[in-house]
Model the fold of this input.
Amino acid sequence: MQDGLARCKAAVSACFDTVLAPLGTMPVEEGMRYALNGGKRLRAYLVMEGAALHGVPAEHSVWAAAAIEAVHAYSLVHDDLPCMDDDDLRRGQPTVHKRWDEATAVLVGDALQTLAFELLTRPEMGVSSQIRVDLIASLAKASGAQGMVLGQAQDIAAETSATPLDLQEITVLQGNKTGALIEWSARAGAILGGGDPTHLGTYAKALGLAFQIQDDILDVEGDVEKTGKAVGKDAEAGKATFVSLLGLEGAKARASSLVDEACAALSPYGSRAEPLRDVARFVISRET
Done:
């Protein structure tokens, strides 16, 4: 998986270099480059591996892979703002609003979001206009008021609620806030190849929830030097998390069970899907 992830990172970085080359050096433009730098590129990897399973070459799928990374980067820039999660550190460096200012961070996020949809229109994707429209429409839904944005709103509302979230409610919240973009990433490859995205979607639902549970575990056990962001914030804020609701060992057991579910969903692809199974195993062993 590590070799494939390295190739994916290089391809996505080259894609961003191409599309950002015409931009100048205004703070917003520099902020876009800054926000896109680093990260695991896990969502991009899901796109490209899912596409490979459906016969789509990397030079075509990389545009959708870059699109989801642009949306993800935008979400982090806005998520870190004082009016949201109020974080000073992201990917081991100052957050965009700390490096510049809050107004620049808002505009950087806006620009990255719109860049994502521009990337999905590129003729280099080598697919029909209808497939590009399907990808654009599904990403808009996954990242908007029926997906990630809804999840963030639910998270903010939960912080001021008199009643803590229960397990079902936090599962729904995280399915929107984190899971929706992960699910889009996995399904996009099948859509690019004109295939049925059902199995990859089932895989991604379990994967996304396991990913969030591991995030909650890292907030308890993680090291800021490894995670590249603040830890212990959830407990300080008294937020309901999978760890607070299930206990540390219970959360780990639930994450492991979800990985088994994710791997099982890939059975129609046989051994060809082993890189995606490796992703599922990596998600609950990562330290960042």
Strands lie at 89-90, 93-94.
